[in-house]
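Final report, Chapter 2: Outcomes

The project's central promise was a pipeline that accepts a single protein chain and returns its three-dimensional structure in a standardized token representation, suitable for archiving and comparison. That pipeline is now operational. To close this chapter, we reproduce one record exactly as it appears in the project archive, with the input sequence first and the structure output second.
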Amino acid sequence: MLNGKRILLIVGGGIAAYKSLDLIRRLRERGASVTPLLTKAAAEFITPLSAAALAGEKAYTHLFDLTDEAEMGHIELSRSADLIVVAPATADLMAKMAGGHADDLASTVLLATDTPVLLAPAMNVRMWEHPATQRNLEVLRGDGIRTVGPGEGHMACGEYGPGRMADPLEIVAASEAVLADGPLRGRRILVTSGPTHEPIDPVRYIANRSSGAQGTALARALAVLGADVVFITGPAEVAPPEGVEVVRVDTASDMLGAVLAALPADAAIFAAAVADWRAETIADGKIKKGADGPPRLAFAENTDILATVSSHADRPRLVVGFAAETDDVVANATAKRLRKGCDWIVANDVSAATGIMGGTENAVTVIDAGGAETWPRMSKDDVARRLAGKIAEALA
């Protein structure tokens, strides 16, 4: 998918810059040509010579290079690539982009371009979570900038949390998705997946048996068709797909907040198995066995995410819910579609005899205003591809 594509790789100043060298190699393995552009700070972590040697092309560093600028070199750099990848995208670079600054070669190129841009953010967890960075991120996404990562993990500074740059292969997959000439190119699609965990005390929670396999397969299939996918996942067994924006949550409340933060979108697909109830009160300490027998738990109802988005001011053009039923599947799912106000419901029978919950196959019925369409049992990947194609047709 990258064969013959021209990638301008802008390397920001951070310890994650060392990964950009491997990224150059991975991109070239897939047939892409790579032109490196290093910020002044990036050159403190890796050398232009290293980047140029791996890319097989000149590495650019300065805005006022007289030879290049006599020919408006920064304009040529900004327009000649098929994709601009910024990895690592530091908090400073993101702030410059969001504010429209152009005080060095990297920021000038990014302001002058009409080429798709993919950011791979990398920074300290506190910097990533700072309201200013999150505001800048929202502005950039509103401008059509794609992102991949950051991931969670241990930082070079010794802290732990979100802020690690995505691995080079994740960035490659995201680059392929951005450049995919599929029917969903330019569409922003939200997908929820996995279970939610509703805590009872510090060591116990209420959950369900969802593996997250169907949601993951669907997010992957949509990305292959060129969609910009925001993948909001609970604590699933299945790893999230590469090439999509991943938002990890635990509770139904967390998921609702992440979903609303991801709007607006062209479509929202709610494949997650969200807990309907939560404990009304979460114990501060582990609940112990006692002479009085099991504890009595009072429950509160979680806010209905599907219904909330279906009636939201920023309602996506297409809203799709999932209905896991154990009896009267079509009747119950049809009633659910009307009750929630969504466009489609994808219903399946998850009774124990089917083996679908947590399994590798699925048998679904897609219900819309025109009626019910039952599909034969197939792999979850095949269900995802077929559903992604149907979504592409609806958004065409």
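Archive annotation: The mean pLDDT is 89.
This record, like all others produced under the grant, will remain available to the consortium after the project formally closes.
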